[in-house]
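anyone seen this seq b4? input:
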Amino acid sequence: MNPPVKPEGLAMTGWLCAVAGGLTIITGMTFGMVGALARALSRQEDDLLAQATQALDPLSRALLDHFEVVAAVLIAFGVASLIIGVQFLRLRPAARASLEILSWVVLIGTLALEALAVVFPLRDKSPGAPGSWISDPLTSMLLSLVQIIVCAMVIRFVRSPAVREAFRRGAADPR
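predicted toks r here
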């Protein structure tokens, strides 16, 4: 008797989720260390970063002002994604539901944050104001659109009958 075939993309989804989680943890830790370093340097009498922080756009300045929270959120989502990805590869039934929940949280969070960014723009639009293409509202909208599309595709994938069946079979197989 042949073993049941896993749906196409199942292993890829688990690996991408795990790798994205690991990279998000590293990003959160790096952001936390850079924020702590910037804060420590700003407390020195001779602030080496004073000119650099004056050139920051309001969004970047806000992120640096609250770097601990940003780093903690990145690390928390990274750990969740890493664990879910590994469990998804093992076909644990809770992993399918967890990945769907994580996707919904990210989708709703992205929509909410983008709505706030449109209603309360942080960018100073005066001529000569600091900023770059990354702080432009169009960039934010495009990146949010990509994230929303990916979340919708993941939700659709984990809800598909083939994936549901694979996780039912995986739960029955005690390997």
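Helices lie at 10-42, 50-54, 58-65, 67-89, 93-119, 137-158, 161-172. The chain has seven helices and no strands. kinda curious what u guys think
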